[in-house]
Amino acid sequence: MVGKLLKWRGVKLVFVSGRKSDEITDFTFNLIKSFSRVKKIDELPGGFGRLLLIGQKVLVLEDRDFEMEKLEKFFNLFSEVIMVVNSKNSTRERKLAALLKRSGSLIVDHENKGKIPGKRLAGYLSYGTKKSADFHISDITKGDSINFKINYDGSSIPVWLKKELGKEAVSTTTAALGAGVLLGFNFVSLTRKIER
Predict the structure, then answer these.
(1) How many helices (H) and strands (E) does the chain have?
(2) Across-strand partners of 156?
């Protein structure tokens, strides 16, 4: 019953797995909260807990090595699942990607794009420093802040992050932006919301 309500209301799930998944989860939540009703959840809610999800438009969940069977049932509750992979264990991520339905989407770090199949999905994007990445990261400089450009779909947008966040924040930020784009939000508008 709850699953039908979630699908009918068009609730989407962003599921984050791999390296720095906690940072990507937090940043994805903070990035899209000004665009939609979003809730970050820490576990797979069951029974009555699922009713609390109905008022949201987007849920963000970090992979905590949940059992595959439970995840598959949970994924089936949503109109769309967007999986963000910053791979540390491509074997697990391949299995997770296989759980996605055709309406699902996947954004992966470019180094692992060939290792995690996603051609059958509605959306399949990559991010990284290689020019062939869909979200191409370029011109990274460190000074008083970390400055870089994200090139996507003909737009090249400069981004500044606090120096304390470290260079790894460049990829976590870009992964979160990719999730926002797959949710249907405007790339340029999303980049304007980056305040790290």
Answers:
(1) 7, 9
(2) 151
Residue 64: CB atoms within 10 Å: 11
pTM of the model: 0.88
Residue 70, CB-side half-sphere exposure with 13 Å CA sphere? 9
Domains of the chain with CATH codes? 2-126+167-179 (3.40.1190.10)
Question: In the chain, what is the greatest distance between 2 CA atoms, to the nearest angstrom?
Answer: 53
**Rounded Cα–Cα distance for residues 27 and 150 (Å):** 16
Backbone angles phi, psi at 99, to 5 degrees: -75, -20
> What are the tens digits of pLDDT across the range 122-172?
888 999 999 999 999 999 998 888 899 999 999 999 998 887 777 788 999
Placement of tokens 């981004």 in the chain = 159
Handedness of CA 95, 69, 31, 3 (dihedral sign): positive
Q: Please state, in angstroms and rounded to a whole number, the distance separating the CA atoms of residues 130 and 126.
A: 10
Q: 28 near 40, Cβ under 8 Å?
A: no
Q: What residues contact residue 87 under an 8 Å CB cut-off, 6+ apart?
A: 18, 19, 93, 108, 109, 111, 112, 115, 116
CA angle 169, 171, 177 (to 5 degrees): 100
